[in-house]
Write a structure and sequence with these properties.
Blueprint (H helix, E strand, L loop, with lengths): L1 H5 L3 E4 L12 H7 L5 E5 L4 E3 L7 E7 L2 E6 L5 E7 L4 E2 L10 E4 L3 E7 H10 L1 H24 L5 H14 L6 E3 L4 H8 L3 H13 L3 E5 L2 E4 L2 H9 L6 H34 L1
Antiparallel strand pairs: 1-2, 2-9, 3-8, 4-7, 4-9, 5-6, 5-8, 10-12, 11-12
Helix pairs in contact: 3-4, 4-9, 5-8, 6-7
């Protein structure tokens, strides 16, 4: 697996003095508690792991951002999640990856052997709680994605997405969108034209400001929240039209639920 990784990026052993300065993620905590990790540098759009590959490592974003996605037989791409600095990805309930992961921007990734993570969790109650918390957070993100992909209008989808990104941004009213408009479209199941049109409309309505292509400032958070969550226009035709979105997220729900159950059992046994 390491030879496969080395063909994609630059890998170096990561001494503890080089750990990230932001709030530590699971892998950073693991290294502080004695495990070894590998720092890997990926260029924008480079694959970190592919669907069906062995799930031998857990990964933490140190710098940059990562998307996980699935390609369908008809050529469509569904982005299932975005991961920011301090967040862990690559969690699986079995021995292989069910999605691909790619660097959105030039990124630094910290990888720790999955077997080492599980071994530490088995003998360190604090770390076991951290692993459970990360799994629960992954489950919550899937639930949020389902909510965004629920029976809403395109305007609501984009508003909800911006609010979700705000929750994961360091600023109170400022969002750094590392992903492209196409990435956002593939996450929401919309066209890039629709995403761009909705963002432009919000800017014209003074709900947001766009100082640059990747930077968004919320000028009226209350208005954006009303757009996202206060339109209850739902009918049977809408549910039928978007039912395939829920079918595509069912494996995500099962995968995340299996992880939560497994980690809860490990905590009880500990």
């Amino acid at each position: 697996m390491l030879m496969h990784l080395a063909s994609k990026m630059v890998a170096t052993q990561s001494p503890r003095s080089q750990l990230p300065k932001f709030e530590p993620g699971l892998n950073t905590i693991a290294m502080h508690r004695g495990l070894n990790g590998i720092r890997m540098v990926y260029a924008s759009n480079l694959e970190i792991f592919g669907e069906g590959e062995p799930a031998e490592y857990l990964y933490e974003v140190v710098r940059g951002s990562v998307r996980t996605c699935k390609m369908f037989g008809d050529g469509r791409r569904q982005i299932t999640s975005f991961h920011m600095p301090g967040e862990v990805f690559g969690l699986e309930p079995d021995e292989e990856h069910h999605f691909s992961a790619e660097a959105v921007t030039d990124s630094i990734i910290l990888a720790v052997k999955r077997s080492a993570i599980m071994g530490l969790a088995a003998c360190d109650l604090y770390f076991a709680h951290q692993l459970w918390a990360v799994t629960a957070q992954d489950h919550r993100r899937i639930q949020n994605h389902i909510a965004v992909l629920g029976c809403m209008k395109a305007r609501q989808w984009v508003a909800a997405f911006l609010l979700l990104m705000l929750q994961r941004s360091p600023g109170d009213d400022e969002i750094e969108l590392s992903m492209t408009r196409q990435d956002i479209a593939d996450y929401l199941g919309l066209t890039i034209e629709t995403v761009s049109r909705m963002i432009t409309q919000f800017e014209k309505e003074a709900v947001i400001g766009i100082p640059s292509a990747r930077r968004v400032i919320l000028r009226d958070r209350a208005a954006l929240t009303r757009v996202a969550f206060h339109d209850n226009s739902t009918d049977v035709s809408c549910l039928l039209q978007h039912s395939h979105r829920f079918e595509q997220t069912i494996p995500d729900i099962h995968r995340s639920s299996d992880l939560l159950i497994a980690n809860q059992k490990a905590l009880e046994q500990g």
